Amino acid sequence: MTDSAGGDAELIAASLAEPERFAALFERHAPAIHQYVARRLGRDAADDVTAETFLTAFRIRARFDPARAGVRPWLYGIAAKQIGRQRREEVRALKLLARTGHDPVADSWTDSADDRLAAEAAARPLAGALAHLSAGDRHVLLLFAWADFSYQEIAEALGIPVGAVRSRLNRARRKLRTATGAAGGPLTEARIHEGDPA
Question: Which pTM value belongs to this model?
Answer without folding.
Answer: 0.58
